[in-house]
Amino acid sequence: MKRFFLAFLFTGSLATAMAQSAQYTDAMTKQTSELDSSGTFTADGLQQKANTFERIADAEKSQWLPYYYAAYAQVMQALILQDKSQIDPLADRAEGNLDKAEALSPKNSEIACIRSLIATARLTVDPMTRGMKYGPEAAALLEQAAEFNPENPRIYMLRGQSLLFTPEQWGGSKSKAKTTLELALQKFAAFKPESSIAPHWGEPYTRKLLEQSQK
Amino acid sequence: MSNINRYLCLFIFTPLFSLAQNKISGKVTDTKKRPLPGVNIAVKGSYDGATTAADGSFSFTTTATGDQLLSATLTNYQTLELKINTAAGEQLNIVLKNAVNALRVVTISAGSFEASDDKKGTVLKPLDIVTTAGAGADIANAIKTLPGAQQTNDREGLFVRGGTGYETQTLIDGMLVRNPFYSSLPDIPGRGRFSPFLFKGTTFSSGGYSAQYGQGLSSALILESIDLPERSSSSVGVSVIGVSAGLDNLSKDKKTSYGIETDYTNLSPYFNIVKPKNSPNLGPEIIGTSVNFRRKTSRTGMLKFYGYGNWTKMGFNSNSLEYPGYTESFKLHNNNVYTNLTYRENIGHDWHLYIGASFSSNTDNIDADTLLKNPAPSLIKVRSDLSQTRVMFYKNLGRFSVLRLGGEYQYAEERSAFNENKANFTDNYTAAFAEGDIYFTPSFVGRVGGRAEYSSVLGEMNFAPRVSLAYKMNNFSQFSVAYGDYYQKPEPQYIRFSRNLGYMKATHYILSYQRVAMDYTFRTEIFYKKYTDLVKTTPAYNNNGSGYAQGIELFWRDRKTFKNVDYWVSYSYLDTKRDYLNYPFRVQPDFAANHTASIVYKHFLPKLSTNLGLTYSFATGRPYYNPNQPTDKFMSDRTMTYNSVGVSASYLTSIRKAFTIFVLSVSNVLGNKQVFGYHYSTDGMRRDEVVPNVPRFIYLGMFMNFGIDRRQDVINNL
User: Is residue B160 part of a domain?
Assistant: First the structure.
């Protein structure tokens, strides 16, 4: 009887552990799939998502992904905000989340990509005076991301985006943007996310950018 | 078996408990009862929570039961945690307090214009200092577009609030620069020696500055050099007046860098075409070079070395006033060396250490026949050497308050010779200072400090108390007041001939208001400055001079109203009189204008990839000495008003792999006549206008950079 009880206890605790992880996976699957929908891409929608991911991150504490997604939602919010005075505080908060994510998952190519986006967001506050500092920083972070994992398609998407939107005299080029974005699409086709909740965003956006580069 | 039953019960019922749903709702406001949207409400340790809506309300259900911790988080506010009972079902009223962040903390601002990227909410960025048309990449020229500085363009230096150029001190990384300007010829001012791109921060203080610095009666120009460059790069430049090349190397680990720059300037081909008022008889030719070495010695430690060497020769012929029809020659050979070594480190327990050492040497050899042809042409040789060391300890107290303690020692050797007559002296100068920035609240700060100095050549000690207060009313607006005593040694040319002189003294009183938002800045200051113990040269050298300066200044900058346009307007009203040198009584001095104004306009045309800049400066006429007037009308004549319009255009492109920029800039584009004063012949019968040697200067250049994109620098150079 005792043996039966012990076995029961083990199965039970295992089940609880599984349940928790299932709760995490379920919540993350739901939240990340909502993140992919265009309806979320408003300042308010992204703020809600960032808050939700921060709640999950703080409850879990040992998962880098919720911190990563919180930062992702925050930097996207910063990039679509009209009020430029809000960008730096958001960028600070996103960087705080990435610091925590990086402590859990060092040398992570995806995290470096978001850091590059943060540098870009900070640049947009005042391009004339900040361009000198944050332009090269954004590029250097993408180089770092490529060092960690050259197969990450988001690196090439962000490089292509930067080539597309930088004036030609400043080193931008539509034709170079086009080849880089095409490379990004190849990388997307080959890219296998580690799990259903691992970063996988950007392919439709890359296609949109590619269209623009062909105009 | 009963035991097992109990356990079984537990396992069966636990999930049931967690399925119980409790509703939690409420509203979040700030301390002034305004609703706060976007607040992250969370039940700690669970995923449950919500984001507040536009009216601050929130509502969600949670499976957590019993007593729980609820947290409310919002950027710029202090996170609040409160204990709740999930079953209570009450409406929660949550009030969040403002977090104290750098943006909200008041800083001392009376009297100073700070250009820095490090701190948010500064009036100017470092690049703004140099993106000023007509300034010609000269820090001092750009600063002349700010309130407080005079348009005194016939002599070098910054003339601030009724002070002379000598009353402004230049400091690099806390170390005094003895000769910040190129040696000048009569009526032709020397430019600043240092490239604006060496510096990450510039503070122009037009009064009331910190006890850390001394020996400037009026003003301090505090320059902070950059740490490490972003990347390695090299550059070349060609222009109508010369060539330059540079190399900057950053090590792989990004902890060490070195750089070398060299330039050669020769104005004689240009002067062959434009024909200046006084024709050159030597050069003008300048060879300059600089080296730097920077090393990050630890996470908090930084070691910097900067060395600069410069060789200048120039000379001009001018028409003699004394002997009409004859020409007089004035030739100058200048050698200048400046080195600066500083080290900063965090030495633990919140104490920081700063050590600096510098050496400079400046030699002017002047060959002039401006006086009588007989006996002989005059040969003047002036050499000044300065060695200095400086140590400062500072400690952070609490979150914002800082205590600074430090001392410095300077050894100066001033040698001069007029033909065979020599007049040399040396001075040992020692100073100690203590200063505290005390935050009573994050929005109310007081800076209290004092400085004690001793100079061996004057044989005198002084003590200068300084106090400032600043109060921030909201995120944008603040009031500041400042008071301080400032002492300065008389200029070497007077100490040379009299050892009975003491310090000159000025006392500053400043009241300032500023409103700094993201895209605009408004600032106004009222000041009163009292001068005592100024040097008089008659009847014998003495310290009986005195004077005052008072005025009001306005500054407005707007980067928002017009797209791709950034402009600022500054205005200074100055009322000043002084009795010094050979003045018979108190009068407005010949370097001071009552009204000074500047408009700086910058326009970027993205489609053409071109930057346009325009600077307009205005000043009312300055007094000048007319020997034909009776003594009671001393300095009562005024020159014509000063008007100057400078324009610049720069075009950015790429040539092969090098980022390239073409630059065209024209000073005084409208050709306004500018008269700074008059020279009279000894008998007062003839006079000569003091005007710019070249009324309009046209500059065309091309700069290429390999590696880091520094074109923005070059645009900013205009």
Answer: yes
**Which of the four pLDDT bands, split at 50, 70 and 90, describes residue B371?**
low
Asked whether residue B245 falls in the same domain as residue B145, the answer is yes
Q: Is B93 helix (H, G, I), strand (E, B) or coil?
A: strand
Q: What 8-state DSSP symbol labels residue B608?
A: T
Interatomic CA distance for residues A201 and B380, integer angstroms:
75
Which pLDDT band, with edges at 50, 70 and 90, does B597 fall under? very high
Provide the shortest C-alpha distance from residue A23 to chain B (in Å): 9
Residue A125 belongs to what H/E stretch?
helix A109-125
Subunit contact B518:A135, Cβ cutoff 8 A:
no
pTM > 0.80: no
The answer to whether residue A2 neighbours chain B at the CB level (below 8 Å) is no
Sort out which chain A residues have CB atoms less than 8 A from B230's CB and list them: 132-133, 136-137
Q: What is residue B430's predicted lDDT score, i.e. its pLDDT?
A: 96
CA distance A195 to B201: 48
Give the CATH number for residue B625.
2.40.170.20
Full domain range(s) for residue B56: 22-96
pLDDT band at B15 (very low <50, low <70, confident <90, very high): very low
Residues 153-192 of A with CB under 8 A from B: 167-171
How would you classify the pairing of strands B520-536 and B57-62? Answer: unpaired
Q: Positive or negative, the Cα torsion across B170, B176, B182, B188?
A: positive
Percent of chain B with pLDDT over 90: 44
Q: What is the C-alpha separation between B207 and B512, in angstroms, rounded? A: 11
Which positions in chain B touch A25 (Cβ < 8 Å)?
A: none
Q: Do A93 and B231 touch (CB under 8 A)?
A: no
| ipTM topping 0.85 | no
In a 10 Å sphere around its CB, with 0-12 CB exposed, 13-18 middle and 19+ buried, how is residue B512 labelled?
A: buried
* Residue from the list B42, B231, B711 with its beta carbon closest to the beta carbon of A58: B42
A171 contacts A138 by C-beta, under 8 angstroms:
no
Structural domain contains residue B3: no
Q: How far is A143 from chain B (nearest CA, A)?
A: 14
DSSP state of B146: S
Residues 115-134 of A with CB under 8 A from B: 126, 128-133
Supply the CATH number for residue B73's domain. 2.60.40.1120
Cβ within 8 Å of residue B668, ≥6 positions away: B644, B645, B646, B674, B692, B695, B696, B697
**Closest C-alpha to B410, from B427, B424, B393, B432:** B427
Q: Which among B639, B658, B553, B522 has a CA at the least distance from the CA of B147?
A: B553
- pLDDT tens digits, one per residue of B527-539: 999 999 999 998 8
Q: What is the DSSP track for B448-465?
A: EEEEEEEETTTTEEEEEE
Contact A5, B2 (CB under 8 A): no
Identify from A30, A51, A62 which residue to disrupt to test chain B contact, counting B C-beta atoms within 10 A and taking the largest count: A51
Which residues, 6 or more positions from B539, have their beta carbon under 8 angstroms from its beta carbon?
none
